[in-house]
Structures
1.
Amino acid sequence: MKQTTFIASALLFMAITSCHEKQPVKEEAKKFSISDSMAKMIAIDSVQNCFISDAITLSGEINFNDNSVNKVFPRGSGQVIESKVSLGDKVTEGQVLAVIKSADIAGNYADLSSANADIAIAQRQLDNTQSLYKNGIASERELLEAKQNYEKAKAAKNKIESVLSINGGKNTNAGGTYVLTAPTSGYVVEKKVNAGNYIRPDMGDYLFTISDLKDVWVNANVFEADIPKIKEGYEVEVTTLAYPDKVFKGKIDKVSEVLDPTNKAMKVRVKLDNAAGLLKPEMFAKVTVSNEQQVKALCLPTKALINQDGKSFVVIYRTKDDMRIAEVNILKTVGDKTYINSGATEGDKLIVTNQLLVFQQLLDTP
């Protein structure tokens, strides 16, 4: 009997032990946390209460600053013997731009030679008359007339020398050639002449334009419906096809008072710093004009948004162990700012760099 009881007890113990061994052990779910290495890869920004900006996009063109250019005109008619520079070349003050052979210059030197001869003749006549006057042979009237002739000869020479000085002075020679030089350092932004070209007396046009391009103008078109939204002083952001990821910031410094009769648009001008020399005349530009309204809304950095399934989300950050995904209702997006109606509150911290990695981890974590 005792043996039977012992066996039964042993079987019961084994059964209970077997049941315990078959029960699976539940593991505690791990919560996602940002590691130290990932913390170096993310950036944090915050939700703010901002004035709503109303942006207008205009099309425009880069031009050189007319207030910082020098136009080089010919000093006389003739033929261009040499053109020393090309469009876009960098030049220094005094550098030769072109060599021109001119009949006008040759004529001026011929007149100068004749004037020197006239002075020599007038000088001899004056000396002779003075000698005769001292000896009582010539009258005072004759002496005065000799002096006047000498002064007239000198005046004629001075006039010719002044003309030569205006036409180039030391940059001319008796062979009838003169050189055009750069009046200032900068870049050749316009060139209208090449070797062999003739310059007519009635031409009256400039041959070169030199600009330093340290700053440039952007001329943009504003159509009638947008005219009330544009004023001097408004901030703008300019982008170009050449540098689509680079934003140039400036302000509207001039608004035209009349419409262009061709396209019925009003011209506005933006002055941009161009110290790096990236912007070139004739480049196409997209001009975004910002105008702050007197209405506020919650705003967040546009780069914080995550778009999925037609919805917009942000990752709200409290600590490296406490983050959550929030769907936001977008009011409007203007450049690097997005205005929202709901989904976040003022002061919320948002992950704005590599937030998609964190977003996916939060989705995959139960």
Note: Residues 257 and 266 are 8 Å apart (CA to CA).
2.
Amino acid sequence: MYDLYAIAEEHLVAAHRSEHGRSANLLLRQQPLRQTIIALTAGTKLDEHNAPPAASIQVLRGVVKLTTPAEEIELTNGDLYLIPHERHGLAAVTDTAFLLTTVND
């Protein structure tokens, strides 16, 4: 069993120590499923990248902005969002930690 909020807090501390403002921990890798905790300091961005066949983001702390060619959506504590299967980018509006779940072929 994992305490997602405790892991998120640990990685937020690590993100503040990182020169890149981010920290991540792969919790589960059982093909095709992957779950990763990612923490970003306010203002940190993940550049535009391709989406896996299926993915979701669940915000554990903070506010994050997800941008696709079609929309820009702001997600906050407790939000669960199915990431569209298209290129997207991510920016931390505040210090943020989220659970990224992906399914790859």
Note: The first strand starts at residue 22 and ends at 30.
3.
Amino acid sequence: MDGVLAAFAPVSLAQLALRFGLAVPFWRSGMSKWDGFLQLNDTAILLFASEFQLHLPGGPYPFPAPAVVAFAAGSAEVLLPVLLVLGLATRLASLGLLAMTIVIQLTVPDGWPIHVTWAAMALGLIAWGAGTLSIDRWLASPARRAA
């Protein structure tokens, strides 16, 4: 029975779905922060300067250097999803998005149901990689590609 079910959901398809599923929400968020190439919009900076707070013990605390943090977050939210969709440096990109998810959870504690989903997808990709439908696999040594 497991073999029949596995035929409907091969591991490589599941890994591809995880890559796209994790990439989409971060890509959308990242694209909303930019007005043009390397031109961060005022709203993104304003959110990090006045709205977003880190909910840590004794806090909440404002983000340090909000313009720098907004630029870094916006850049990562565009670059890391592209890497995921391509299946390039997948484990590293997933680790970056997992770290971002943790910071987002500290910023928006009530969003934990969706944050757990993002963390689970990132952890799956970190653990099992991009799969056969990826540049990572194409770049791997011939012996690893056969495995």
Note: The radius of gyration is 18 Å.
4.
Amino acid sequence: MILKTFLIFLVGLLGYSEWLLGTSYLQRPIILGPLVGLALGDIQDGIIMGATLELAMIGAVSVGAYDPPDLVSGSIIGISLAIQTHAAPGAALTLGIPIAAIMQALGLATGQPLMLAFIHKCDSAAEKGNTHALTRNMLIAGYIQDWPGIVFIPLAFYFGSSTVARVLNIIPSFVQDGMNVAAGLLPLLGFAMLAQMMMNKKVAAFFFLGFFLVAYSGITTTGVAIFAAVMAAIMYVFFEQSPVHKKVSHVAEQEEDGFDEF
């Protein structure tokens, strides 16, 4: 149990290493799920539960002032406890989303002020030209803003598996059925949030084309993805690279004033 707790801690630390490794998909459930499953010796359930959480949280991205829930803690705690209790993938979703919201609130209330204190130290180190202190304080700031998740992930896994098992056993069947229904609806909400950000008149037709191909032709989603890649290549070769398009692009470049950086 100690070894598994330590491995879960390392997975959480990796998920919170955005300031060290750069912005990536390491903090997404679809990556953390298999890592948790590998640490617990059940990579298949880790993949399935990670994909389930990813579908539900696919629209949870930081856009503007919006701060999404803490996907790292929600994913790791929800998936690890669900695997430990041999629960269904819906249990990981049911546990993960509330935990992600709670950790987000703790991080904003306590982690952000601590992070800002070290950011001011970074400013001071930059003024003095002390690159070592600047790097050290920046990395500390990146981790300390997520201290609730870093601390509570291993603690919740170590102390929570038996408690969660007892809670799951006493939950009435109709409540579990309701949670399973909600778990099935939440991925739709995630897709709706993603579609709201990207849907417009140019891509709507392609969206419905892919939907009807899967629904009525028996083609798998992999087949639709390959079909879409071929279609994109054909459109690029025969439309984007046509002489008329090149002439229009050349005229547009001549009309630019040189100040458009986008």
Note: The longest helix spans residues 89-128.
